[in-house]
Amino acid sequence: MLDAAAALLEDGGLAAVTVAAVADRAGTSNGSLYHRFGDRAGLVRALHERSFTAMLEETAAAFRDADALTDDEEAARHLAEAALAIFGRHRAALRAFLVEVADDPAVEARNAEVTASIRAVVVDWLVRRFGASPAGAEDAFALLYALGASQALVGPTTMTPGAVATAVLALSRR
User: Which residues form the HTH tetR-type domain (predicted)?
Assistant: First the structure.
């Protein structure tokens, strides 16, 4: 059911994620969806959790991979590529959960929690790997977050991973 909801979200935004449409796409009944999630709001919260957990896991994996790279420029470029790919894969979820239902207290709280977790990973890594000042690392995170938000709102960026890496390194090293 969550796979069906994610596909509908990707195809038509949050408005397309209705109980009937999810049940139809999943090949199940409305009743089984209500039984599992309670209502549409429960389904949306489960989709939110699944989407943001995936983003956290993908971010952690990208940093593990970058830690294995000895060249700092290569590591920064790898992370820029990963960030752009993560933003692209989760564009519909970012748009839905950062914009469309951000006023739901449960969604807002989870958004803040996930953002803080990703911020901590990014800032800590930049400080540890490059000796960045905390302020420089925070600025670099803000740039990445703004890039992700802009992709969610207006579509894929034309920025290259090299340009993103250069900007992150410049902010980190100032």
Answer: 1-55
Q: What is the pTM of this model?
A: 0.85
Architecture of domain 47-173: Orthogonal Bundle (1.10)
For residue 70 the two structure tokens come to 């000895």
Confidence of residue 139 (pLDDT cuts 50, 70, 90): very high
Q: Is the dihedral of CA 129, 132, 135, 141 positive or negative?
A: negative
Question: How far is residue 93 CA from its own chain's centroid?
Answer: 8
Q: Look at residues 29, 45, 134 and name the one whose alpha carbon lies nearest to residue 93.
A: 45
Angle, helices 19-26 vs 2-12, to 10°: value is: 120
All structural domains of the chain with their residue ranges? 47-173
